[in-house]
Specification:
Elements lengths: L1 H10 L16 H22 L10 H8 L1 H34 L4 H14 L5 H11 L4 H8 L15 H25 L3 H9 L4 H29 L3 H7 L6 H10 L6 H33 L1
Helix pairs in contact: 2-13, 3-13, 4-8, 4-10, 5-8, 6-11, 8-10, 10-13, 12-13
Organism: Mesorhizobium denitrificans
Protein name: ABC transporter permease subunit
Keywords: Cell membrane, Membrane, Transmembrane, Transmembrane helix, Transport
């Protein structure tokens, strides 16, 4: 009987255990999209930044980023707009997130706020520029109401929507909701047991915030501020639709160099893009570092 069983086992063909890596098919479109529209264009820009019109290696384009006063000014304006929109957006967004998470508000308020924040954080470009011009422009709805009803003319007070300060105001429309979307999970990770333990040990609410919550939230807050900075620094559609070429920021200057209407030095444009890639790359590196620290605290 044993011999017959062994013979039957030997006669049965072995089933192959080799499996095709079908689990990778789902993420293949993502990697293909990333390579075609992110990795390859980035490498093309970096290589072009170190070439001249004849395709030879040169550092002249990189040197011009530091020597040309208009380019230096454009970087400074872009950094200033990105910094203030990131800081103000982070502070206001944090206040909103604290109100909906720890403020004791009804659940529908949180749901409505998160839904709106998810939509508004992606609302940019021509529609956003048109909305602000129609609202706060010289003939905007709010401007006319303030002038005719309250007797306040915004533009006689020095207010100018088509300026760097006006662009900061426009950027806040999507910076604040983005802050709410990102910081809310970090606030959800704060455990109620920490407050109960602090109260048991006799800590005041201010001591609990100063010694527990703020140190825990600080990496998440700084990381989100850096992410908001990178988000604003690379934005061009909203700025160009809002101010045209009147505002000297890096994305608009880069667009003018590559498009070649007046300026026509694509390789200098590649160098401008390389500078933007470097700044946003450093910002995102710090963001990942801060996020890692915050996740370690909130586990």
């Amino acid at each position: 009987m044993t011999e017959q069983t062994n013979v039957a086992t030997m006669a049965t063909p072995a089933v192959s255990k080799t499996r095709l890596p079908t689990q990778w098919l789902g993420v293949t479109p993502f990697f293909l999209f990333a390579v075609l529209f992110l990795v390859l264009p980035t490498m093309y820009l970096i290589i072009g930044a170190f070439q001249n019109s004849d395709g030879q290696f040169t550092l002249a384009n990189i040197r011009q980023l530091f020597l040309d006063p208009s380019i230096r000014a454009s970087y400074w304006v872009s950094i200033k707009i990105s910094f203030w929109s990131a800081v103000l957006g982070a502070l206001v967004g944090l206040a909103i997130a604290l109100a909906i998470v720890r403020g004791g508000l009804p659940n529908w308020v949180r749901s409505a706020t998160m839904t709106f924040s998810g939509v508004a954080s992606n609302f940019a470009g021509v529609p956003l520029a048109f909305a602000f011009i129609s609202t706060l422009g010289r003939l905007g709805l709010v401007t006319i109401i303030l002038r005719d009803v309250f007797g306040l003319n915004l533009y006689t007070t020095g207010f100018n929507l088509l300026s760097s300060y006006g662009l900061i105001l426009v950027y806040l429309y999507f910076q604040i909701p983005l802050m709410v979307v990102i910081i809310t999970p970090a606030l959800d990770g704060l455990r109620k047991e920490w407050g109960e333990a602090a109260a048991t040990l006799g800590a005041t609410p201010w001591q609990f915030w100063r010694m527990v919550l703020i140190p825990v939230l600080w990496p998440s807050f700084l990381g989100t501020v850096i992410l908001l900075f990178a988000n604003a620094f690379g934005a061009i559609a909203t700025a160009y639709a809002f101010t045209g070429s009147s505002l000297n920021i890096v994305p608009i200057l880069l667009y003018a160099q590559i498009r070649g209407d007046v300026l026509n030095d694509p390789h200098l444009g590649y160098a401008l893009a390389f500078g933007m890639i470097f700044i946003t790359g450093v910002a995102n590196t710090f963001y990942i570092w801060f996020r890692t620290r915050s996740e370690r605290w909130l586990k």
